[in-house]
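User: Good morning. I'm curious how P-hydroxybenzoic acid would be positioned relative to this chain. Could you predict the structure with it bound?
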Amino acid sequence: MPQTHRTSVCIIGAGPAGLLLSQLLANAGVDSIVIDRRDRAYIEGRIRAGVLEQGTVDALTEAGVGDRMHREGLVHSGFDLAFDGDRHRIDIAALTGKSVLVYGQTEVTRDLFDKRMAEGGCFFFNVEDVTPGALKTHQPTVSFQHDGQPVTVTCDYVAGCDGFHGVSRKSIPADVLRTFERVYPFGWLGVLTERPPVSDELIYANHARGFALCSMRSATRSRYYLQCDADDDPENWSDDRFWDELRLRIGAEAAANLQTGPSFEKSIAPLRSFVAEPMRYGNLFLAGDAAHIVPPTGAKGLNLAVADVRLLARALAERYRSGSTTHIDSYSRIVLARVWKVERFSWQLSNLMHQFPDHTDFERKMQRAEFDYLVQSEAASKTIAENYVGLPLE
Ligand code: RFL
Ligand code: PHB
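Assistant: Good morning! Here's the predicted structure, ligand included:
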């Protein structure tokens, strides 16, 4: 006999989307069970996002997990775009009145886990063979193996927060689901190093040898990325080769400030734009990377996941408070309208900042003209700034 559990919302995936959803639901008095195929240490160790929009900071603060973030996060009021060594600062504070916060996804995840655990949140880790079922009924189920035993959770709603490779999206029938995808012909090779960053702000650089990004996690820890072949191997990149290449791409002035050290977490991420529609099927709701992927150039993936979850938590809380399904029924439509705008921004910034193998000299001239226009036009810079700090939720 399978072990059975009953809850209001079964959340598949304990990444930032699933964890925040369970916290927001708990704050609204709605119970949930969260399951993940990995364990807490593995999830917390994944080095990913670093830049939080104002709306994300607000959501984490309202959820009650903002204390350490406000103490340790670095407020950034601008960033640089560089083209063959020429730099242009996008002054996001002056252009939008807002700022972003540099605070790693590892830390966001840790803060969320700490609070959920302290409040006795219900988790199953290291689960296998996760199978959502009866999604079109009022009593959907999620079945899985845990410690070699079959477990079934029955619930009112299933939240698919299980990332791009999860099972939730795949449980929507093919004749219902539409997907839209662009795979970019390159990847990002990322490293961390225990050295102060090149500059107080991020630098996104387009160079004839390829894109480079100077980012950070703290005043003493830097994060760097280089555009590389999608099928390249991090083993091909000694630290010396990485630093030499970075120096060439970021221009002489930034290179003069580069402090290099032993690297860790050297890995290659593919770049993809992807959207699945709709984000609801019966009583299954998708949120975060389970429904959409953006290339990391705009620093949007985690922020999009948080925006989805804010709207989903509001919709579910409303349903339990008043019985109204108004926001549940509009969830997919409202979220997707914003998702596509963020996809557009991430795609456009990626097109501007990378070297594409099929580009001719004409496209290269177009990129340079766009950069020169940005330098001269406050309106063009403002367009970038308002997208970077985050579009309104609705
Ligand atoms: P996650 O974080 O992938 O979590 C999904 C969870 O689901 C679990 N899972 C399953 N559990 C049960 N059953 C299954 N069958 C399951 N399949 C999967 C997984 O173990 C995992 O724990 O998705 P979520 O929560 O939607 O969060 C999305 C973000 O992680 C992602 O969008 C960002 O990391 C993207 N991203 C960035 N986003 C930003 O907002 N700002 C940035 O600066 C930024 N930089 C980045 C990034 C992503 C990167 N990589 C590596 C893709 C930089 C990089 C290099
Ligand atoms: C990061 O610090 O990991 C980072 C920052 C900005 C991006 C992408 C990644 O656009």
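The chain has twelve helices and 21 strands. The pocket of RFL (ligand 1) is lined by residues 12-18, 35-38, 43, 48-51, 105, 127, 130, 161-163, 165-167, 188, 190, 269, 288-289, 296, 299-303, 305 (CB under 6 Å).
Let me know if you'd like a different ligand tried.
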